[in-house]
Each structure stands twice: as C-alpha cells, then as structure tokens.
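hiii, so i know i said id send this last week but things got crazy w the move. better late than never?? heres the sequnce for the chain we talked about at the cafe, plus the structure i predicted for it. fair warning i was half asleep when i ran it
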Amino acid sequence: SWEEDYGLYFFDFEKGTVGKAIYDDPEWNDVDPVALVEHPGPKGRITIVVDSKSTGHLQCLSVYDSDQPDVQRLRPGQVKKVRFVEGIPVSRKEAERLSKLPLGIGQAGPGSTSNGATCFVQTRIIGEAPVEEDGSFYVEIAADTPFFIQLLDEDGLALKTMRGWMWVRRGSRRGCIGCHEDKELAPREWVGMALRKATPAQIGYPVKAPPEERKTLDFRRDIMPIIRARCVGCHSGPSPAGGLDLSPEMVEHEEGTFFNKAYESLLQPVEGKPLSVGGRYVHPGDSRDSPLIWHLWGRQLGEQYDKVPYVRPIVQMPPGKPLSDDERRLFAEWIDLGAQWDNIPGPDPYETLEGR
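okay and structure toks below
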C-alpha cells in the first residue's frame, strides 16, 4: 500500500531472511532494480525514442470501437472531442503532509486524503482535440506524461472516462484501434479521417507548454466563488432550499477539519447507492450522471441509478438567471476531473482555513 516504504535489499535464500539494504529512498518506493553490468547489445531492435523531442503522436481508428456496453450505446457523431488528463504523482513526503481522510466524509475511500472526499488523485488537463465523424483522432501530445482519456459530448461533458493510464514516448507514434476494443478481433483495414489529414491536431492548450501552465479545476478557487455569488442566498441558513446547504463555513469533525459545508453537501453519499455510481448530487469523474449538472442544464443528461433514483424534479438552477455556459462548464469539468477540494499540485496556496 502507499503507506508502506519499499526499498531494495539483499535476500538470504538459505535462511529465508532479508539482509542488508542496498538502496531505500524514504520519499519514494523503490522496485525492480536493474543491474548495471556489461551485456550483449539487443539484436535487431531499434529504439522509438528521440531524445531531442518533447512530444509524441497518438492516433485512434475509432472511439466507437469498444466492448464496453456504455460506449457501444453511443450514437455515431455523439463524441465531439477527446480530453487528455494528466495524473499528478504524490511522493511519500507529500503524502505525509496530507491529512488522511476518515471514511464517512463525503465519498472518501481507502487512501483518500485532504485533497478531496473522493478516490481520485490530483489531475490537470493537457488538452482537448476534435474527433472526426468516423470516430478517429490524431494528436501530438506531451511525452513521458501519464494521462487518461475522456470522450466529450457537444456540451463538453464526459461520455466515458478511461480507467487506466497510458503515455507516449519522446518522438514515438502510437496507435489505438478503439476504446477498450475486443482484443480478439482484427480491425478493419482502413485509414481514419484524422490520419488522412497527415498533421496531428494541436490540442487546446500549448502542446509544448510546461506542466505548470496546464489547466486545473479547484473547488476553492474555481467553484466556490460561483456558489457564493449565485447559490448561497437560497442554499444556506436553518432551512436551505431543497435541503442543500452550500454555506462557506468549515465543518468540524472529531478527526479534524477538512472541507467547508458546501463541498461536503455536494459530495454527500446516499444510503443504498454504491460510491462507484456517485452520491446524491455529484458522481466524481462523471458529470453527465450527476444531478447537480442536471439542475444547472435544466434537464436530465445521463442515467439514473434505478435502485436509488434521484426523485426531485429537474428544474433549472439558479432560477431566473441561469449560469453562463462558461460557469456551467467549470462545474462539469470539476466533476469530470474528480471533484477535488484541492486540485492544485504542489504546496497548498490555501493552507489557512480562512483562505479556503
């Protein structure tokens, strides 16, 4: 587990005991050592890595080619863009700085920290690229960077989120058949519309921009100001509208103070509804199935969890004057990226409770 410290040690096979330590960095887990000794050069193997380049190319034949039922249900042309989301690794030292979150707060699970009451790591958007009518895309993207892919609809909401990590090497060219396609079937012999353009799409943010300039979505910085300005007037006090309290005050728990009332209210779970399909208002990583987003758009966008459905009428919020498209997009992106409280990598700029 992440709480353990893995190092490299000699092992006495005769006694069955661990011997002298070879190397152990206290901030990282050390695994899979490689001996630096002379060895024959590989035969007939040419590296794909070009050290002078900082990017690689990635193409996909069709995002609709999948063995996943929820992707198979997508209509041709429904996917408008793909989003590439970087995962931020956490060193052991950084993990020790973060408060371990008790289960029962929001949608926290084993390993959740004070970064957020979800099971997501901190993330930032590398960029977005168009998907052609035939489902293909072709992009140039930052190399040696772990990322997952999201399929976006016309509103910029995630239709499907990849549940694993991938990357490209410097100067490499990688190709995918589809999104979790059937590995036992060969693809059709064809060239996608995106690849026929010869030049890869330049994703929305500078492809060679430093990581620090990539877009992040943080509840305190990006979401709470909108809630203060447009929502708190009705959703606060002894009897908040709809029973949803979006007050900015911090919430004290026996184990400590982690988040404010607005965040905990939006992330509250529902009895009988597994955290894998979200809570009452927010499904981290899936804005389309989040009732909060249904209210902001004024209509149900995704699917109900039939065993514990959301029963309140779906009416436009805030009433009278809805949020702007840009404001609604912020909420959707925040949820699709994991609904984190603190999604700003590195030292917390809001360390004091008052600053949150």
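btw The CA atoms of residues 146 and 256 lie 33 Å apart. thought thatd interest u
miss u guys!!
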